Amino acid sequence: MIKRTTIGIWLCCVLTLSMDAQRIHFSDYGEAQMQLSPALTGAYKGSLRVGLKFREQYRGFIAQPFKTSQVYVDAPRGMKMADHHWIGIGMMMTRSDAGDLSMLGMQTGLSLAYHRALDKKFKTILSLGTQVQHSTLQINNPTAARFEDQLLAMTGESRDQSLIDDFNSQRLAHRTGVAVKKVFNKRIVFQGGISVQMDLTQWGTSNAQSRFLNQYSVFGSWDVKLDKKSKITWKPSFVVHQAIGLINAVGALGVQHQLNDESDFQITYSCGYRLKDAAILGVSLSNAIWSASLQYDITTSSAQNYNGMNGALEVGVSRVFIIYPKVKEKVLFICPRL
After folding, report:
1. Tell me, what CATH number does 279's domain have?
2. Nearest to 95 by CA among 86, 83, 104, 103
3. What is the pLDDT of residues 73-103, one digit of tens each?
4. Which residues span the domain enclosing 280?
5. Is position 330 within any domain?
6. Do the strands 188-199 and 215-224 form a parallel or antiparallel pair, or are they unpaired?
7. Which of 98, 105, 184, 272 is the most exposed place for a label (fewest CB within 10 A)?
8. How many domains are there within the chain?
């Protein structure tokens, strides 16, 4: 019991000391694009997109596994000046519940993006995005850190225990991103970009910070068909995230094909690798309206000695709504005498 609680406290301390290291992360950002970059807000065809994401990890390593859930909504809005550019607005809310101490993290982000097609056929689209994030962190179950045989100070209280009991912190951050989508031809499409984050306040304070590049992300993906008539699309992708000297790099390769001749759904099988951490297996099903994905991480680091190679389970689903404007019908009265 003491050993398990000690592990929980150790994980709590590591998370607290490395909050800048993007504690909220996913293996697949197809259902969490605003988490990847604010420039991807509203970057789709449709009127409104609603989605959710759930991830569970460290099951078998600690009694209470880490759980992360996210719900989001974004929408493209046309601009009357021209039909080749538009804006995207969105909001995401993320909750993470970590370990035996029930370290609860809440994050709310508001995003705004500007998209502009550089040609009439929309073969090259440049996107700029900005996002404001407010994050809170608190411990909901501090009693889990108490040992039956713990040593107390002479006053009868533990200074370390008081730090855990009173732990409650928050942070305000700003993210900026740029992305580009390029259609080279009917066989090759590329999308990629970069985003950076600046903390406006430190954890637990209201003092402004001047650290600019404390986090950045670089990402890219391709859709490649070997020939024009091919029904198979190869989808290589990568995401590199850096925070306070720590690098989280993921590379993946997906193979997509039509579910069957009578369906408009596409099924994608993927495999990937997170550097020095886990192998990732995934499958997704999507069409122009619906998208659902499932990923499983197989631990390849030294942590496999404790969790039996059970890494993380991740699911996501999204729905695009298409709302057509009402057509004003003109009533024409025809005089029978004419």
Report:
1. 2.40.160.40
2. 104
3. 999 998 655 678 999 999 999 999 876 667 7
4. 2-321
5. no
6. antiparallel
7. 184
8. 1
